[in-house]
Specification:
Length: 233
Amino acid sequence: MSERVRGAIALAPAPGPSSLALDLSAGDGLSSRMLAERGWRVISTEYRTRNPGWVAVNLNSDLPFRSASFDLVTMLEVIEHLPDIPHVLREIARVMRPGAIAIVTTPNRLNISSRIHYLLSGYYKGRRAPLSYRYRVEDGRNWHVMGLNDLHWIGWGVGLRMDALGRSRRKLRSRIFAPLLYPFIAGFSWMLYVRGVEDPEQRRINGDLFRFMTSSSLLMDENIIMRFRKVET
């Protein structure tokens, strides 16, 4: 079983009697099956699908669901393929009920080994080498692997608050280098996010981001598993 999928589903809350989950671009259906085994009623989607009961959904367009319809939305290893990431996060927030949960995963470009690879090559995790120039953005390759800090910011703007990170696979080299580099990363991050920030609200938000950016999950995991909660309004 995929450690990434298992880590994502572990962040899902226990469902209520009428709880409804939306599994976007569910792929082989593993995440949908795991949610169903935990008691969720699940609507699964793919861009094109022949699976009975699944819904064909183009994530580049508006989601074909009513606002405030779902208690849980999952989108695993999909967001880095999309041309308009703010749009899909805005649509996810729209179809979530107040207080609902969204779980999003993507390659973790900010783990230690990815940062070292970037230093030497200019490419992060998920984009270790140049894409073929035969492809275009609309072809759906993983062209845009964003960092947690960017997704935290975009999510905040559409009413999604990151509140937890899940656990995925950790390679040996990350386990070795993370403790060695952690003091430097934490110190520099504190100066960048916290020191000198005078606005109280921004300082609080930056403090929250600092906690995620210096966590063991961010520094060592191969995939970043993010849980967002929709702000109640």
